[in-house]
Amino acid sequence: MSARPLPLLEVQGLTKRFGGVTANDAIDLELAAGETHAVIGPNGAGKTTLVAQLSGEILPSAGRIVLGGLDVTRMPPYRRAARGLARVFQVTSIFKDFSTLENVAIAAQGRLSHSYAFWKPAEADEGLNTLAREALRQVGLESRWSDPAGELSHGEHRQLEIAMALVRRPRLLLLDEPTAGMGPEESRDFQQLLLGLKKSYTILLIEHDMQVVFAIADRITVLAGGQVIASGSPREVQGNTQVREAYLGEDFAMGAG
Amino acid sequence: MTAALVVEQLLNGLQLGVMLFLMAAGLTLVFGIMNFINLAHGSFYMLGAFFAASLIQWSGSFVVGLALSVATCVLLALAVEAIAIRRLYARDHLDQVLGTFSLIFFFNEVAASIWGTEPQFIPTPALLSGSVRLLSGVQYPVLRLAVTAFGLLVALALYLLVAHTRLGMLIRAGAADRRMVQGLGVNIGLLFSFTFALGAALAGFAGVITGPLLAVQVGIGEPMLIVAFVVVIIGGIGSIRGAFVAALLVGLVDTMGRFLLPAWFGYALGPALASMAIYILMAATLLWRPQGLFPAARG
Amino acid sequence: MPKRGAQWLLALCLLALLAVPLTGEVFYIRLVTRIFVFAILATSLNLLVGYTGLVSFGHAAFVGLGAYSVAALGLHGVGSAWVVWPAAILAAALGALLIGALALRTSGVYFIMITLAFAQMLYYVAVGSARFGGDDGVRLAARNSLGVLNLDKPVLFFYVVAAIFLAVLFACSRVVRSRFGRVLRGIKDNERRMQSLGFDTYRYKLVAFVLAGALAGLGGALDANLNAFASPRLFHWELSGDLLIMIILGGLGSIAGAPIGAAAFIVLEEILSSLTKHWMAIFGPLMLLVILLHKGGIHALLAGKHER
Q: Which CATH number fits domain B3-120+139-288: 3.30.300, 1.25.40, 1.20.120, 1.10.3470?
């Protein structure tokens, strides 16, 4: 019997109560390094709360979150980010007054042990600039490097967000409904991008678009009513009657396969 | 240090607390409902007192003067809201702070032009002069008791308005979730004007009734305003209940502090500590509860 | 006006100001010295407001701490600028550390009100302190001495202050473009995002707050020297408000904005107060108009930028 490698992310009994409402109820989740794991569920299932708890924006009522063997349950967002968690926000959250390049450069700067450097101009820092340009190239935005980020299109914002996450060489990429608001063609392009990322990154994907989910996920966890109702390979989840019931009335287009 | 003296100071603290509540209630409502920070709030306190000084003299009656002064404050507030304040609602807090700060200059200068820089005095109404024996050895000025009582009455009226009327329900809803109230089709412009005028009325009222106790001069609004801010911070922005509890707390701490601290720490250190007492209280509250004692839900 | 043209115009104005001592008119020398002092103060506050997005309404606290450090040391016979000015900076920095550590746990309106409250607290302490003359403040016997330089001479003092101003301006321009400055600008743009990128934003804000406070302390010490007088008014929120207006007037988005605003404010104040006794009644609404229309201040006007 061989020892199982330590999972990169372990969520144990994660619960969040808001007054009388239990938004997340004893959620268990496990991600191995290199895995692409999708979390799906109908509206109101508790996905948003789960993401907020994982990123550290809200503290759980009960349960644990362990990232890379370290208990991060009570850590504020900036410390989880420093431990390798990169979050791509559902509603784009970039620095609109900075240039596209500077957005990524500042993300790269976050990897430095500290930024208490008061003299040399940041924009002349070639180390950061090179990393930033490379990340922009990976997502296909390198031509827009000098444009103010606020002028980019919605889809380009998405790409920028991904570049900002990638430049940090994250251990865990947390994608929060990345295809929200995308048309079919944009979603297909995005799917291609994700397929490329899948090879080098561990991804936790919160998603609504089933096409994307079934195309790239190695394993899927299904939330409904704040609880995990199913977890397993895409095939297992597709065949699960509870899952079908939970989605009754919703647009549950099963992906090919 | 006698028991009588302590009782007297406690009553003074209570009176200050009630006055602070009247100031803070307006501030916290305006912030809670309109997300608007108004530094010129203290000006209504000052103007209320000035109006009263003139109107009481003109009418010969304290009550008539009081009513007319508050009415004038309301009219002035409505005018100021329509001309200047309204344009700042959509701006960020920096602009609101500076915009209302500029208004203080204007009001102070206009008041100085009309009433001069010498202090005005509002005579104590005959009915409220003299002192009364509360307990053995405790003689307390009727005027101060009346001010406290009057203030509590208004506080009660405000409570009834906010808790038991439809308008009050809108106010509470607006303080908790402004956008929701707008979505319900309520005439937001009217609600804002009303709230602003209500705040000014409360501040003006406080100015009038403390008039007989203190000199009426240009600039008396600002010290009250600062302490009212401390009350709002401690009580929690948007919360009337918080403002009431915090106001009494601050009134008592400030009064008792100025009374006890010099006695305990001598006259070198005591007064300085006394000046700092309520701010230390504020700092302590912030460490324990950064959102204040009774934070209203923010929308 | 194109940006290049604006820079030349500003440089010319600066040269003109630096040449004022040649006129020999003490009144104008003092006026321009005052402009430089306030330019330092406004620049220090601009680091917080314009670059970090922290609206502090209590910056006067650190100006007062700097000024009263000069007074306190003066009362004990210490008059050397080499000792007194660093002491003023240190006192202000310490005050900023204490106030900032508490105030920065809040944000938005709370932060504005708390910084205001703490500064006023210091004001009341100063007013209540008999040792320092209470309401009347403290007169200094003489200005501090800078080695062999006798700063009681207006022209000499003028150039020392001007040199300090230029040094502060240059240092701040480096800081805002540095990696640290970039973090501050990021915090102003989107603090939540900065946190998700791994930055401990509280700590960076605190460092900025202390830095700004230290510079304000230096300005306060220079003001005390200029007037040979330390008054509680230097703690008063009116000063805090004036500094904020200077920044808006000059333009938030640039380092040059604060000094421009300080100069414009002081000149305007001088002109208006010489016209009428009731100049405040005009000044108030005028400032309100500036607030309503500012769109980037004077600097934006010059540089032809269109920002709100």
A: 1.10.3470
